[in-house]
Write a structure and sequence with these properties.
The complex is a heterotrimer of chains A (about 800), B (about 290) and C (about 210). With about 800 residues, chain A is α/β, with parallel strands linked by helices. Among the domains of chain A are: about 240 residues, Dimethylsulfoxide Reductase, domain 2 (3-Layer(aba) Sandwich); about 140 residues, Barwin-like endoglucanases. Chain A contains 23 helices and 35 strands. In chain A, helix 4 runs antiparallel to helix 7, helix 4 packs across helix 8 and helix 14 packs across helix 16. The two termini of chain A are about 45 Å apart. The mean pLDDT of chain B is about 95. In chain B, the strands form 4 sheets. Chain B has a 4-stranded mixed sheet with strand order 9-2-11-10. In chain B, a hairpin with a 4-residue loop joins strand 7 and strand 8. In chain B, helix 7 packs parallel to helix 8. Chain B is of the alpha+beta class and about 290 residues long. Chain C has a single domain, classed as Fumarate Reductase Cytochrome B subunit. In chain C, about 70% of the residues lie in helices and about 0% in strands. Chain C has 10 helices and 2 strands, in the order E-H-H-H-H-H-H-H-H-E-H-H. In chain C, helix 3 packs across helix 6. Chain C is elongated, with a radius of gyration of 19 Å. Classes of the chains: A alpha/beta (about 800), B alpha+beta (about 290), C mainly alpha (about 210).
């Protein structure tokens, strides 16, 4: 989230799309309700189904799964055409005025951007960049009139997203679209900057082959409307699990290091070349300033290496940079399973996830595990993954053939562990264990530590191919076999390895002391920090993440003394943009930060996300993490692999040919796999119903099917289908249906509902159905024989978004039969 | 509001409830704003957990609703209803169903068992299972279809409005668990004011121009009040009665019919006595003809 | 007694007394639920939950006996022209002016009315009582049936109570010899002649 959960209460208008917060984030959703109750805020919900969120909305539009980008593109067009844009914000805080290289264009006919190589499905992205007036200085036109200005190119690009086009693609009738567009952009009526609108989304946007670009479109819309950096504004990702944000921050992803440092690749011959590649250089219009905070990358990187390898990381050995793995290609979730399916991965440690159930294309994952030598599953219940060898359909004979050794480790449940959750609002919140793990169950850190120490022992005894990283990893915990998470948290915050002095502040942090913030990080090896973003979370003053202060002096829900939010306890990112160019808040009633002329610094109720002493006259850009200092309507410098402007592409399985450019219907560089398990279906083969997957508030993923309370609330799997489709099939609610995709089938009872209506997609009647994902072949109802023992992800395709590598769990094609 | 619960009325009791009227106690109320209910069932779970109610097996029934109606071990149930309004607009209505704690409780009127149903001065109507005889007259007496029979123990159960919590100055468990703040608890006066304000806000600022507060006068008002999107159509919310009253039959039965019966029975006894005094017995003349 | 005539067979007497005992139990427990002032009766009879538990089962037994009686006495209970003539002069019967009454068969019109009243009221009590027994089994949409059942149950119970008072009064205090007859089964010829002359002639006259 750019903002935070509590901040939603400050909004005037909510667009909730690609998410169902009432269902999946009911506690956070209180703030959306609060905005309605306290501010009469409007709520627009756009979803393939009339959801629990839709039930409390002011306007609901039913959209075809996988067409969100077209809807948002339509909103951009509407905002521009109707003058509902924040003009001053646009000129001063975004790259709207920047000029783009002449070579960049979208080939309307072929539906690809300039630089596309059809043979390799890769873009040469060199033209997707700013025109430079001179090196480091961007050519610009502050009138926004120049035909090569970002604004004019943007306007042209989205001029094709007319209400009629939106209707053809999304299935949302023109008049309803216009109603929503008027409502949402209405906050910027006549250019008035007082109001703020927010966009809330979740994996309903992410889990598509153009997921990243959909989210980018939303960000662009918010920039156009001047909603970013504002209380009650922003682009807000509602994270689906309690600690997904923390997992991302701590690099639970293959292509980043903690704190979003880029992963080294084989071309990074040494630390210097790595830093050169990954430290952005300032690019800006001549009259402006840019903080370019990522220019501190060397400090973050050296501090990380010091935290990882301690004394073994020295200036002389490039801070042990050579210990870091270098990624030669993608190793995302789907790739891991594909590698195992192809036999190159021989073993898997599965912790805190149920890989078979998660999918996509679950049967491929099951078959992949059959080929593995070993599998370690740490869980609190016997799950589908640890019992893949007896998944439905495997005969006794075949079972004997499976040679995979499965080790089951009893893990601890969330209430049995202490540590932190990092919520969607970027708050690091410490929690205490409620009770000890039962029986032989162990805490995650103990299991991992003991495995690590055993491996290290083997390296010590027997040696190995590349012992350095293992032997030299720092492991200075009081109890090495079971590190306390408080110690780990302190390590992540970072400390001074040698005395560190700030000349300007005339202050010294002594060797061994906790660092007060990331401004203290050094690239000379005198500081160590496991994640620069978390620096300041556990200082000499104590555990900021354990704070429980409930004071909120501003009344804006900032709660500065509650837990700790990265970065630097800022609650709203880019909050400099809540003021006009002169440093005066756009809305005097919701003042966040502002320029204090007497003190000559930025002050406010939140921590300024800005260089605190940069006066407005210097015109430093508020988006300090971008080297250009501005919000990007156009994403330059190869930031995204599939286009600098988001373009609507159809899901890989789609009921229609993309009306924008029939020659290139789906995302040309979405990752597809080509094993015999990776089939895609077409309308011609009879797969003519759009299927989306979703979650229920009553269940948590694939766990709570083991809990009587949750099973009582929703006992059995089901499929939501429109009443009209049920009529066509001669089906009544509660009767069983079979849903088939090119990859597998799912059997469950039908929930016949009027909450999904048939749609007109490009003039053709199209049905949509929805499947809640929570069941499988292990659970209370499953064991009692009350279900068909199917996984919803037997249906979904392993096609991934090329930027974030998220599979297309939503918006694939199926057919439905009555059983 | 905290403090002991004082009795206002008790069932099956001859004479006034002991202690009633002796001390003042403010009426309490639960406010349910259906316009902000998201049907998350936190209240259902909180109710089960606080009251330690045993689980029951449920079955898929083409709805998100946990079960068709409340049960002896399920006192709090959100009713889900897909509803098309007169103007053609589609709604998915969610209403938390439980005992309404009527000021004029039909269950208490119908109950024959001394002390089995108690109405406290704060408005809570509570079943005392140790005095319940399992006759289920309260089922007939209730205009909201709430009391439920446990066939194993032959006792009636329903929402207690968490008397155990409220008597200690705490809010009911469901209120505590509600994530959106759709549930509120306080004095009846405060809750009514809050509900009216909310309804007015809905009428003025949203499409719900017919929003209103459900606090039915037919049962003397209730200690559970609703804000509804459309006050004219409570039936759409899973059968919330438009104009609930203590059933006429219960009134007739416990009122005129009872007195008529008493008069008839006593009259009959008096009648035969008078007959005996006036005419005496029939005697057979053993030696007649 | 010499010359005595058997008025009620042993089976009939057993039948009557089962009916009497079950009715009394149902009556007393019913009264306990009817009024708080009489709730103590349930306590005397073993507690209110026990009373509530047995009330319907005993009531079913009572109704079973009524059906048995119907089978046994169907012919005797038929209302004839003789009864109607007798009925026109019932005032004389009430005033103990029995000589002026026309002769009748085994049961007089009052007894027959009592029998039929108990049978029909018993039936209504059984049906309405079943509804009250398991009210939750009736869907909410049919709740009016519960309301009607409550009223019918009370009204018909009151009807039987009225009839019962008269029956007990007559059988014990008013008609001397009647009580003995339902205990020992026998009446004197004079008694039979006086109260049921046609029956007397039928059973003894030949």
């Amino acid at each position: 989230m750019t903002n935070g959960w509590v901040d939603i209460k400050n909004t005037d208008m909510m667009l909730i799309m690609g998410g169902n917060p009432a269902e999946n984030h009911p506690c956070g959703f209180k703030w959306a309700i609060e905005a309605k109750r306290q501010r009469n805020a409007g709520m627009i919900v756009v979803d393939p189904r009339f959801t629990r969120t839709a039930a409390v909305s002011d306007l609901f539009l039913q959209i075809r799964a996988g067409s969100d980008l077209a809807f948002l593109g339509g909103l951009i067009r509407y905002a521009i055409e109707n003058g509902r844009v924040a003009h001053d914000y646009l000129v001063n805080y975004t790259n709207a005025a920047f000029l783009i290289q002449d070579g960049f264009r979208l080939d309307d006919e072929n539906g690809v951007f300039s630089g596309f190589d059809a043979a390799t499905n890769v873009y040469d992205r060199s033209t997707w960049n700013y025109q430079e007036a001179e090196p480091g200085k961007v050519a610009h036109d502050f009138t926004l009139e120049h035909p090569r200005s970002v604004f004019q190119l943007l306007k042209k690009h989205y001029s094709r997203y007319t209400p009629e086009m939106v209707e053809r693609i999304t299935g949302i009738p023109r008049d309803q679209f216009l109603k929503a567009a008027d409502l949402f952009t209405g906050i910027r009526k006549d250019g008035d900057m007082k109001k703020a609108g927010t966009i809330l989304y979740a994996v309903g946007w992410t889990q598509h082959s153009s997921g990243t670009q959909t989210i980018r479109t939303a960000a662009m819309l918010q920039l156009l409307l001047g909603n970013v950096g504002r209380a009650g504004g922003g682009v807000n990702a509602l994270r689906g699990h309690s600690n997904i944000q923390g997992a991302t921050d701590m690099a639970g992803i293959f292509d980043i290091l903690p704190g979003y440092l880029k992963m080294p690749n084989p071309a990074d011959k040494d630390f210097k070349s790595y830093l050169e590649r990954t430290t952005p250089k300032t690019v800006k219009p001549d009259p402006w300033e840019s903080f370019n905070y990522w220019s501190n990358t060397p400090k973050f990187a050296v501090s990380l290496l010091k935290a990882l390898y301690g004394d073994a990381a020295k200036k002389e050995n490039d801070w042990a940079f050579h210990y870091l793995p270098k990624i030669d290609r993608k190793y995302s979730w789907v790739e891991i399973w594909d590698d195992m399916y192809r036999g190159t991965i021989k073993g898997l440690l599965a912790f805190g996830m149920n890989g078979v159930a998660i999918g996509p294309n679950s049967q491929k994952n099951i078959d992949a595990l059959k080929k593995a030598d070993w599998l370690v599953v740490c869980e609190i219940y016997p799950d589908e993954t640890s019992e893949f060898w007896k998944s439905p359909g495997i005969s006794a004979e075949e079972m004997k053939q499976i040679q995979t050794t499965v080790y089951r480790l009893p893990g601890a449940g969330f209430a049995e562990k202490d540590g932190t959750f990092v919520n969607s609002a970027r708050w690091l919140q410490w929690k205490n264990a409620a009770l000890p793990p039962p029986g032989m169950a162990k805490l995650d850190q103990e299991i991992l530590a003991r495995i690590f120490l055993k491996v290290r022992e083997l390296y010590q005894k027997e040696g190995g191919k590349f012992p350095g990283p293992v032997l030299n990893a720092t492991w200075s915990y009081t109890d090495p076999q079971n590190p306390s998470l408080a110690e780990v948290a302190r390590e992540i915050n970072g400390r001074a390895v040698a005395d560190v002095t700030d000349e300007k502040l005339k202050q010294t942090i002594q060797r061994g002391q906790q660092l007060p913030g990331f401004a203290w990080l050094r690239d000379d090896g005198s500081t160590a920090a496991g994640n620069w973003l978390y620096c300041g979370s556990w200082t000499e003053a104590g555990a900021m993440i354990q704070r429980r202060g409930t004071d909120d002096p501003s009344g804006q829900g900032i709660y500065p003394n509650w837990a700790w939010s990265w970065p630097a306890n800022r609650r709203v990112l880019y909050n400099r943009a809540s003021c006009d160019a002169a440093g005066v808040p756009w809305d005097a009633d919701r003042k966040q930060v502002w320029w204090n002329e007497t003190q000559q610094k930025w002050v406010g109720v939140d921590v300024p996300d800005f260089k605190p002493d940069s006066p407005p006259k210097d015109h430093m850009g508020p988006f300090i993490m971008n080297p250009d200092g501005v919000g990007r309507l156009f994403a330059p410098a190869a930031a995204f692999v599939d286009g600098p402007f988001p373009e609507h592409y159809e899901p890989t399985e789609s009921p229609l040919v993309n009306p924008l450019h029939p020659k290139q219907s789906s995302n040309p560089i979405a990752k597809r796999f080509h094993s015999s398990m990776d089939k895609l279906g077409t309308v011609a083969e009879g797969y003519n119903i759009v299927c989306t997957t979703f979650r229920l508030t009553e269940h948590y993923h694939y766990w709570t099917k083991n809990n009587e309370m949750n099973v009582q609330l929703v006992p059995e799997p089901f499929v939501e289908i429109p009443a009209e489709l049920a009529d066509d099939l001669g089906l009544r609610g509660g009767e069983k249906i079979k849903v088939t995709s090119a990859r597998g089938e799912y059997v469950a009872k039908a929930m016949v509902t009027r909450r999904i209506k048939p749609m007109q997609i490009d003039g053709r009647k199209t049905y949509q159905i929805g499947i809640p994902i929570h069941w499988g072949y292990r659970g209370i109802s499953e064991d009692a024989g009350r279900t068909a023992l199917k996984l919803a992800n037997l249906l979904s395709p392993a096609v991934t978004d090329p930027n974030a590598n998220t599979p297309e769990f939503k918006g694939f094609l199926v057919k439905v039969e009555k059983l | 509001m905290p403090g002991n619960l004082r009795v206002q009325a008790i069932s099956g009791h001859s004479g006034a409830a002991p202690g009633s009227g002796a001390q003042r106690q403010e009426r309490v109320a639960k406010l349910i704003d259906t316009t902000t209910c998201i049907g998350c069932k936190a209240c259902e779970v909180a109710c089960l957990e606080w009251n330690d109610l045993p689980f029951r097996e449920t079955a898929f029934d083409n709805t998100y609703q946990t079960m068709p109606q409340t049960a002896w071990n399920y006192w709090n149930l959100i009713k889900f209803n897909e509803h098309t309004a007169a103007d053609g607009s589609f709604h998915w209505l969610m209403r938390k169903d439980q005992c309404m704690h009527c000021a004029d409780p039909g269950c208490l009127a119908a109950c024959p068992a001394d002390n089995a149903i108690v109405q406290y001065q704060n408005g809570i109507v509570d079943f005392q299972q140790e005095y319940c005889i399992g006759c289920q007259y309260c089922v007939t007496g209730c205009p909201f279809n709430i009391p439920r029979f446990n066939p194993a123990t032959k006792k009636m159960f329903k929402c207690t409005l968490c008397t155990d919590r409220v008597s200690q100055g705490l809010e009911p468990a469901c209120i505590k668990a509600c994530p959106t703040g759709c549930l509120h608890f306080g004095t009846k006066e405060d809750m009514t004011a809050l509900a009216q304000t909310r309804a007015q806000q809905l009428r003025q600022h949203t499409a719900h121009t017919n929003a209103g507060v459900y606090d039915p006068a037919g049962v003397g008002g209730t200690s559970v009040i609703y804000v509804l999107h459309d006050i004219a159509n409570p039936e759409a919310y899973g059968g919330l009665p438009a104009n609930p009253r203590v059933p006429w039959a219960v009134r007739l039965w416990k009122g005129p019919l009872k007195w008529l019966g008493n008069v008839a029975m006593i009259g009959g006894l008096i009648g035969v006595t008078l007959h005996y005094l006036r005419f005496g017995p029939k005697k057979v003349e053993e030696h007649g003809k | 007694m010499e010359n005595s005539i058997l008025r009620y067979s042993l089976v009939e007497r057993v039948m009557h007394w089962i009916a009497a005992v079950t009715y009394c139990y149902v009556l007393l427990t019913g009264l306990a639920f009817y009024s708080p002032h009489l709730y103590w009766i349930a306590m005397v009879l073993g507690g209110a939950p026990t009373s509530r538990f047995w009330h319907p089962w005993i009531a079913v037994t009572f109704f079973g006996v009524l059906l048995w009686m119907l089978r046994t006495w169907a012919a005797d209970m038929r209302i004839t022209s003789v009864d109607r003539a007798w009925g026109k002069q019932m005032k004389r019967y009430i005033e103990n002016d029995d000589e002026a009454l026309p002769p009748i068969d085994r049961f007089n019109l009052g007894q027959k009315y009592f029998f039929w009243a108990m049978l029909f009221a018993g039936f209504v009590l059984l049906v309405s009582g079943t509804v009250l027994w398991i009210p939750e089994k009736l869907p909410w949409s049919l709740r009016d049936v519960r309301y009607i059942a409550v009223l019918l149950h009370v009204s018909s119970a009151l009807l039987t109570i009225g009839a019962f008072i008269i029956h007990v009064y007559m059988g014990t205090a008013m008609v001397r010899g009647g009580f003995t007859s339902i205990i020992r089964g026998e009446v004197s010829p004079a008694w039979a002649k006086m109260h049921h002359r046609l029956w007397y002639q039928r059973v003894a006259g030949k």
